Amino acid sequence: MIEAVVDPAVDHILAEHPRERTMLIPVLQQVQGALGYLPEWAVQRVAEYLHIPVSHVYGIITSYTQFRLTPRGEKLVRVCRGTACHVRGGAGIRKAVEEELGVAPGENTADMKFTYETIACMGACGLAPVMAVESTIYGEMTPARSREVLQAERGNGG
User: Phi then psi for 124, rounded to 5 degrees?
Assistant: First the structure.
């Protein structure tokens, strides 16, 4: 059993929604927006409020990539692994990012400055290979340039 956590923000979100199963995704989105991720206690609280089995809530959470069960770093770094990026050296970009950050895809840096993910395609194939830091897309990357971008991002509030 999980220790009950009282969080006014979560309680406020729940109070704004009717206790209907159809509210699950909007409630999860808002709770994650408030907390940054979906901790176990919050999942339990949502399930109880909406009268849905916790297993069903986890089934929904794990079906959608928008939901996170672990905290995210301050900045999200994504590297494309699509065909165009792969052909133009994307593997070298991924390796450089992993070495620079010291993490594998899906992990956070120890200082929680960055979360690193790979993505199937960013839709910027003409700029391949690409990486993104938050909403900024960097095209025509090289391993050296990817390291420079990350070092600059680390120095700019992240």
Answer: -125, 45
Are 45 and 87 within one domain?
Answer: no
Q: pLDDT-derived band of residue 7, with 50, 70 and 90 as boundaries?
A: confident
Domain that holds residue 23: 8-63
CA distance readout (Å), 97 to 4, 5, 133: 39, 37, 11
Instruction: Please state, in angstroms and rounded to a whole number, the distance separating the CA atoms of residues 27 and 64.
Output: 14
Task: Indicate whether 4 pLDDT > 70.
Answer: no
* Residue 100 CA: distances (Å) to CA of 129, 152, 157: 17, 12, 17
Instruction: Quote the longest CA-to-CA distance of the chain.
Output: 52
Q: Is the pLDDT of residue 2 over 60?
A: no
- Count Cβ neighbours within 10 Å for each residue of 118-157 and write b for 16 or more, e otherwise: bbeebebbebbbbbbbeeeebbebebebbbebbeebbeee
Going by DSSP bridges, is the β-strand pair 75-80/114-119 parallel, antiparallel, or unpaired? Answer: parallel
H/E segment holding residue 107: strand 107-108
Query: Half-sphere exposure of 158 toward its Cβ, with a 13 Å CA cutoff?
Result: 18
Domain annotation covers residue 1: no
Q: Coil, strand, or helix at residue 103?
A: coil
142 domain-assigned: yes
